[in-house]
Design brief:
By secondary structure, the protein is an alpha/beta fold. The chain is built from nine helices and 14 strands. Bound molecules: adenosine-5-diphosphoribose.
């Protein structure tokens, strides 16, 4: 049986665990420094097995020995946002957590594909990349899929159509500078721009860019269902080698004219990690926005470099 380990059994980690356990495609290990949380949530998820039904074996632990030979490791350990906070304000505190987690991933799961969820996303993926020293095809961040799903959900809401029929693509960094690309939205292949005015689309884009903050404002902490499910889907793509096409934060070396930065672009995801980075033609305006995202991440990566010494 393949193995997916999830570090951080908080809100996002446990939803990713629930998604994967219910799919029945891999053994799941849920690890947290607070052992009771990891053990309790793993048991709770296992208890739903007969109802779903699902045969997945799921362990809760604080012991890194259990993540040995993982095919995928999802990192969600770290602080979430509080109301009024930007993701970037979490950099220092979450750097300490993600770097110590990454040391353990390197030691106990040296062949794993790593999917980082902790914020500020692109800077934390860079941290995991530097600390593990894993090849770039095995280290990525989950954000583009979540942002795209949020964009698609808002379009579905606007048109009163099934969310399952809406496709959308959000590039760039996971923050206010993200780049939802209007041209790449469709209702089952029909361009969404045929049904939504440009003005209204711009409002939907603004809401997408602030969607995480909207939820933090409503509940006092950050979202977990869609983020956890998105991380779960990415792990599933690797385990089942599905070659899903989705945006993820990956290390660019020249693609889109960007160098040495983690930023969200479309990839083909399957066994072994990133199989291909898809370089699609962008308008000058879209490319400019993507590069602005990359400039922003570059500054955060410099902060990470300074913290690493
Ligand atoms: N090792 C393992 N687990 C840790 C560590 C560590 N060094 N430090 C913290 N944790 C655990 C906490 O004990 C907690 O259970 O990480 C978990 C985080 O869970 P929540 O506080 O519920 O946060 P969550 O909403 O899951 O968000 C986690 O993902 O989306 C991002 O912005 C979000 O950075 C945040 C992260």
């Amino acid at each position: 049986m393949r193995k997916v380990s999830i570090i951080g059994a908080g809100n996002v980690g446990s939803e990713a665990a629930r998604y994967l356990a219910h799919k029945g495609i891999a053994e799941v290990v849920l690890l947290d420094i607070v052992e009771g949380i990891a053990k309790g949530k793993a048991l709770d998820i296992w208890h739903s097995g007969p109802i779903i039904p699902s045969t997945t074996v799921i362990h809760g632990t604080k012991d890194y020995e259990l993540i040995k030979d993982s095919d995928v490791v999802i990192i969600t350990a770290g602080r979430p946002r509080k109301p009024g906070m930007s993701r970037e304000e979490l950099l220092k505190v979450n750097f300490d957590i993600v770097s110590s987690v990454s040391e353990n991933v390197k030691k106990y799961a040296p062949n794993a594909v790593v999917i980082v969820v902790t914020n500020p996303l692109d800077a934390m993926v860079y941290t995991a990349y530097r600390v593990t020293g894993f090849p770039k095809k095995r280290v990525m961040g989950m954000a583009g899929l979540l942002d795209s799903s949020r964009f698609a959900a808002f379009i579905a809401m606007e048109l009163g159509v099934s969310a399952a029929d809406v496709r959308a693509m959000v590039l760039g960094t996971h923050g206010d500078l993200m780049v939802p690309v209007m041209r790449f939205t469709s209702i089952n292949g029909l361009p969404a721009t045929m049904f939504i005015s440009e003005e209204r689309m711009k409002e939907i884009i603004k809401r997408t860019q602030k969607a995480g903050g909207e939820i933090v404002g409503l509940m006092g902490t950050s979202a977990w269902f869609a983020p956890g499910d998105a991380a779960g889907l990415m792990a599933e793509a690797v385990i089942l080698d599905t070659n899903r096409v989705l945006p993820a934060s990956v290390y660019l070396e020249g693609e889109y004219g960007i160098n040495g930065v983690f930023v969200g672009v479309p990839i083909v995801l399957g066994e072994g990690g990133i199989k291909r980075i898809l370089e699609v033609e962008l308008t000058d305006e879209e490319l400019e926005a993507l590069r602005r995202s990359a400039e922003h991440v570059k500054k955060l990566q410099e902060q990470v470099d300074a913290l690493m010494g």
